[in-house]
Amino acid sequence: MSGSAWEKQYPLLVTEATAPEPPAEDADDELARAGALYYLVRWGFGPLARLIYRPRIEGAHHIPRTGPIILASNHLSFIDSFVLPLFAPRPVYFLAKSSYFEGGGLKGWISNRFFRALGATPVRRGAGQAALDALDQQRRILQSGKAIALYPEGTRSLDGRLYKGRTGVAFLALETGARVVPVGIVGTNEAMPVGAKWPRLSPRVTIRYGDAIDLSPHGPASSGRARRLATDEIMTAIHSLSGQELAGAYNEVPAQNPVERLKQVLPHERR
């Protein structure tokens, strides 16, 4: 799909014009940078983490071993982004906020290399061009036949409830033809609560994978109704795996001014 078609089909429906952000780095270049370090972390640190934390993993056979796939998970803790790629049966890539890659000094270098080794690629969060860059980067990763992990809620739940899903995951699945594997993570919010510096050794974390979902029967990616129905199907599957209380609302970042509060109240599609 051409860049102009991509811009018209989805982001302009759900984002607002903002000052252009610097373009995202090429996805293939980013994945290549992880190189041998990615496999060293995955096959070296992964087994050690399994030994120490003894995660319960259920339904891993539901993840196709080849082809584009989206792991759509609930989000309870910072360590979810370590749990998903380390314990999945195939390499999984995800986007992480650019600040993790931009620090200076030894600490910044270590953070940069570690997140790249986990399979993370940097993205600037926000609306407008930043949102477009994130979607485009994920699309290119999927079109290369790889697996990515995303959180339909948008950000982690601070109260343990499951919030309504945003439609970006469904759009990517409908646009690329990738199937979606719902994931229910249990216990990471207790293993590493908000504010904790290091994860605890207990309780044990549980990761449940559900059947891969083909969302194409809902319709094309250009249809807002298709995106909404597909998103609701994904969230229903995640809920059945996680068993969380439903919040019945979006997990919105607190509004900073009256204009932002008005935007949150007015009907709009949450990407």
Low-confidence stretches: 1-7, 10-25
**Beta-strand content estimate:** 5-15%
Mean pLDDT reading? 80
Rough shape? globular
Give the helix/strand class.
Answer: alpha/beta
Ends distance: 20 Å
User: Helical residue percent?
Assistant: 40-55%
Strand order of the largest sheet: 1-7-6-2-5-3-4
Task: Give a quick account of the main beta sheet: strands, pairing sense, barrel closure.
Answer: 7 strands, mixed
How many alpha or pi helices?
10
Radius of gyration: 18 Å
Q: Helices and strands, in N-to-C order?
A: HHHEEHEHEHEHEHEHH
Count every beta strand, where a strand is a DSSP E run of 2 or more residues.
Answer: 7
Task: Give a quick summary of the entry.
The protein has 10 helices and 7 strands. With 271 residues, it is α/β, with parallel strands linked by helices.
Report what the structure shows:
Helices cover about 40% and strands about 15% of the residues. Helix 5 links the parallel strand 3 (about 90-95) and strand 4 (about 120-125). Strands 1-7-6-2-5-3-4 form a seven-stranded mixed beta sheet, sandwiched between helices. The two termini are about 20 Å apart. The chain has ten helices and seven strands. With about 270 residues, it is of the alpha/beta class.
Name a few traits of the molecule.
271 residues; alpha/beta; 7-stranded mixed beta sheet; 10 helices; disordered N terminus
Which secondary structure elements does this structure contain, and how are they paired or packed?
Layout: H1 3-9, H2 11-14, H3 27-53, E1 56-58, E2 69-73, H4 80-87, E3 92-97, H5 105-117, E4 120-123, H6 129-143, E5 147-150, H7 168-176, E6 179-186, H8 188-191, E7 206-209, H9 224-242, H10 258-265
Parallel strand pairs: 1-7, 2-5, 2-6, 3-4, 3-5
Antiparallel strand pairs: 6-7
Helix pairs in contact: 3-5, 6-7, 7-9
